[in-house]
Amino acid sequence: MKKKLFIKTYGCQMNSYDTKRMEDILRPLGYESSETYEDADMVILNTCHIREKATDKVFSDLGRIRPHKIKKEKAGGQMLLAVAGCVAQAEGDVILSRARYVDMVFGPQTYHQLPEMVAKITGAYGAERIINTDFPVEEKFDHLPEENALEGPSAFLSIQEGCDKFCTFCVVPYTRGSEYSRPVEGVLAEARRLIAAGAKDITLLGQNVNAFHGEGSDGKTWGLGRLLQELNGWDGVERLRYTTSHPCDVQDDLITAHRDLEKVMPYLHLPVQSGSDKILKAMNRKHTAQSYLDVLSKFRDARPDIAFSSDFIIGFPGETDEDFEATMELVEKVGYGSAYSFKYSARPGTPAANMQNLVREDIKDSRLQQLQALLTQQALTINQSFIGKTVSVLFDRPHSLESNKLHGRTQYNQAVHVELPSAAPPRSLEGQVLDVTVTRAGQMALHGNIQTAQENAA
Ligand code: SAH
Ligand code: SF4
Ligand code: F3S
Predict the structure, then answer these.
(1) 390-457: CATH architecture
(2) Is 167 touching ligand 2 by the criterion CB < 6 Å?
């Protein structure tokens, strides 16, 4: 009998990737993905621990789900309730003791053991609860099923996990463990499966993806540049991206990949966090503002139209007005196409959580507002500079709100919305790369029209 599976995904793209793989693993056990949790047979919260309130959010979601679990059990059914991901890894014990109705807690490195965990819970030992937060010796990537389900033409592919950088604010080295690169053969096999399932646009993922150093079947160690070079030569792949990179791990062949490989998109997400060398040092980022800018210059020399994106943390302990000004200056110098900015939040167990000189919340707020105003202005200016121009758009899904519109992305990763041509059946353009003339632009997206065949020929 078919069973309903509901997974809620929080956090980064690696969690989105993991959610897909959990669905792949559970499908052979009869679980079909569902959009609602109310009558699901299994609910998994795939959680994120990166900033504060992460755990609170999990408990409030658990509280919402609980009555439905009780209702189902009263009616003689069963709803397995699981907490997975980075909160599970960091606070598994707390979850089990505070939410006694949770059946399974497992970390990001153990979900390949789901069939065994489910069998234990549903089998003869029915009453057992499971906590699984090991970093097992066998790698989950060696135990993934042979089938990759895909919705739409864009796919994530995790090639590297964990992190050894230990930025003082960050939980990732603790929740995901130390840096690990998948062997090249496994990565290529998964890429083949994704392409067979219709992937045209592949984003290679890692917490520190440009530290990738996978063992090749040629006996050599492959870096990210070499891997991109291989995939660039494959039929079926139209676009390649990768995220997230660290400024200290940029190799020359990654830079030249942007110059020489036509499928590698002119877009780079390279987080800097702060523009102040004092703060960068306290963050243990191991680069300076200038060395970061030098890296960006190299990418720009190789690919002058490349679009940059970054992450920023505002209000790290000890951040003064001058430090914040240095961040604003760095942003002015770069001109970002998009960026994410966050108020610093102390994470239990990280070195920065013990630092003094905390920045007042109202000061953090006002700095964040200033930074975001500048970043918004930059994104808007860049997007508006495209009005009247032609961009190459890969269409990936229907517009989330307007059914007569399509959503796609430019080579620079900007979102694009166009009206579906009247003759085209819905979804028929998904996976196609078409030229679009931009007519309007906002901070978040471009709007335009698909060029007709005659226009394309002219
Ligand atoms: N591996 C990536 C991203 C890690 S998490 C990198 O090295 O850049 C994504 C982003 O969350 C980080 O880039 C950082 O900007 C933000 N972040 C991480 N820990 C944080 C914290 N304690 N408080 C606020 N933002 C944080
Ligand atoms: Fe966290 Fe730093 Fe590693 Fe990124 S590089 S995951 S911010 S420790
Ligand atoms: Fe969050 Fe874990 Fe990703 S903490 S950002 S889900 S690696």
Answers:
(1) Beta Barrel (2.40)
(2) yes
